[in-house]
Amino acid sequence: MKLLKMEIKMKTKNIKTAVITGFIAILTLATPVQVQAVNGHIEIRNEVRKVEIFLNKKGVRQQREVEAVKVTPGDELLYTIYFKNTSKKAASNIVINNPVPKNMIYKNGSAFGSGTDITFSVDGGKTFAKSGKLKVKSKSGTLQPATAKDYTDIRWVFKPKLNPGDQGTVQFRANLK
Amino acid sequence: MAMKRFLLNVFFLAGLLLPAASWAVGTGANTVINNTANITYDVGTVTGLTASASATFRVDEIIAAAHTWQDAGNIIVLSPDSNQVLSFLLTNVGNGVETFSLSVNNAIAGDNFDPLNARIYLDNGNGIFDGILVETLYVPGVNDPVLDANGTDAIVLFVLNDIPAAFLATNTGISRIIASSTTPGAAGSPVGTVLAGQGDGGLIDAVVGTTTADVNANGTYEVQANPVGLVKTADVINDGSACTTGCSPIPGATIRYSIQVNVIGLGIVESLTITDAIPVNTTYVAGTITLDAITMTDIVDADAGDFTANTITINLGNVNAPATRTITFDVTIN
Q1: Nearest-Cα residue of chain B relative to residue A26
Q2: Per-residue pLDDT of chain B (334 residues; tens, 9 = 90+)
Q3: Does some domain include residue B210?
C-alpha cells in the first residue's frame, strides 16, 4: 500500500512515462518477470569474448580475449556482466543470475566476482548450492556429486551495498560443446 | 615479406586451435549462442529486476573428416588379377554439412607394386560390395558425397583396382583414397586456416579442423602365397619275373616312386625345392631321377636333380603358376 502511494505521487508529479512505470512496478510485485520495466535503478550489461590461446614471441602459450567471432566447438568464451547503480539511492540485496547458455559447458572454477558469494544450480535455477555440494542423479538413479558440466545456472550474491554511480562486474567462462 | 607474414599467421592459428583437438563433434555450424543475465536488487523499499540484453555469437563451421580402411587385413589377390575391392569409411566429424571430392593415389612408397585402373564406387547403403552393376561408380564433381555434421553421416567407399602381372607371393600393393572438402580453399590448407564466408549458409566462416580438410586412408593388396600340392605314388615295376603289371613287392623288386608337384593359383613361386629321403630297407637305383620324363644326373650340377646323402633333391627354381611337374626315381627292396 505504501508503495502504491509513492508511485501515485510520482504520477502526479511527473510526466506520462513515469505513470506507466509506476503501474508496472506495482503489478510486478506479484509477477517478478515483468519487473524488467523498472529499468533505471540498476543497469546490467552482458558481454562475450573469445579466449584465444596463442604462442608468444618466446613460444610460450598465452591467453588473450578477442571478439567472439570464428568460434568453433571446443572454444572457450569469457562472459562478463557489468552492473551499475544508476539511481540516486544505494542498492542492496543484489543478486545476479546467469543461466549457462545452451550448447555451452561451464568451465570449472571460472566464476568470479569481487565481493560476491557464488553458487550454482543443477536444476535449471530452482535450487542453488556451493560448488562441490551439488548432486545429480546418475543413469542408475543414484545421487552422485555434480561436476561443472552439470551446472545449469550461476548465481552471484553481491554482499556490499552498491552506492549511486558505483559499478561492479562478475565473470564466468564456458566452452562451446 | 608477405610470405613471411602468411607463415606466421598459419603458425599462430595452429597454436590457438590446439585445445580443440579433442572435440571432434560439437555444436552445429550457424547455431546462435545467446546469454542473458539478470539482476535483482532492493532500492529503498523497491525490489527491482533487470535483465541484460543478450550477448550473442554464432558458431562457425569447422571442417573435419575421418577416413578409415574397413577390411580386416590385406586383401589377398592373384598376379595378375582384376576388380579387387578395398572398403573404406568416410565420416564427416565437422559441425557443418560438407561435400567431399574423392581420388585415389596408387603411387605409394613401401610396397612392391602399384595397383592399376583405380575406380571408386559409392556404397548403396548396406556396407557390402554388391558388384559393379549394383554400386554407383563415383564421378568427380557429379556425385561427390555430401555428409551431415558431427559424425552422424558416413559413407562406405569401395576402391577397385586391377593387380599387375608377375608379382610374387606375399608382395604387397598399397592403394590410397583421398577425400577432400570441396569448400574453396579448404583442401591442402593447414589446420586453423580461416575461410571467410565459406561456412554453411555463407554467413559464417569455415575453419580447417585438426584432421585438415583432406583425409586419406591406405588399403593393401597382397599376392596370394601359392599353395603347392604334392601327390606321391609308388609302383612295383620289376620283381624278377617278367611281370608288366601286378608285380610283387618282394626283396629285390624295383619300386618306381612318382611325385606330382602341383603349383596352384597365379604368380610365381620362387626357389621351389622338393626333397625326398630314400625309404629305409630300400636302395636308390643310380641314374633313375627324371623330371617331366627327362633323366637327371645324380651329381649336383646344372640339371635340377641330384642324389646326395640318401636323399633325392629337385630344384625347380622359380615356377610360374599354375604348373604341374612330375618327378620319378626308382629304388629296390633290400
Answers
A1: B46
A2: 333 333 333 333 333 333 333 334 688 888 999 999 999 999 888 888 888 888 999 999 888 888 899 999 999 998 888 999 999 999 988 888 989 999 999 999 999 999 999 999 999 888 899 988 889 999 999 999 999 887 777 899 999 999 998 888 889 999 999 999 998 888 888 888 888 888 887 778 888 887 776 789 999 999 887 777 788 888 988 888 878 778 888 898 999 999 999 887 666 788 899 999 999 999 999 999 999 999 999 999 999 999 999 999 999 998 887 889 999 999 999 9
A3: yes
Strand partners, B157: B88, B122
Q: Which residues of chain A does B48 touch, with a Cβ-Cβ cutoff of 8 Å?
A: 35, 38, 41-42, 91
DSSP 8-state class, residue A86: -
Helices A16-27 and A2-13: angle between axes, nearest 10 degrees: 170
Architecture of the structural domain at A40-176: Sandwich (2.60)
First-to-final CA distance of chain A: 49
Q: Do B35 and A46 touch (CB under 8 A)?
A: yes
**Which among B52, B144, B23, B256 has a CA at the least distance from the CA of A79?**
B52
Chain A residues with CB inside 8 Å of B25's CB? 73
Quick check: B23 and A73 CB within 8 A?
A: yes
Q: Which of B182, B208, B223 is the last residue of a domain?
A: B223
* Domain assignment of residue B146, yes or no: yes
Inter-chain contact B38–A96, Cβ cutoff 8 Å? yes
B324 in the same domain as B245:
yes
Tell me the HSE value of A22 on the side-chain side, using a 13 A CA sphere: 19
- Do B172 and B94 share a structural domain? yes
Do B96 and B200 reside in the same domain of the chain? yes
What's the rounded Cα separation, in Å, for the pair B218 and A24? 70
Q: Flag if A72 and B37 touch (Cβ within 8 Å).
A: no
Domain residue spans of chain A: 1-39, 40-176
Q: Is B285 on the interface with A (CB under 8 A)?
A: no
| Shared-domain flag, residues B150 and B218 | yes
B312 is in which domain, residue-wise? 228-333
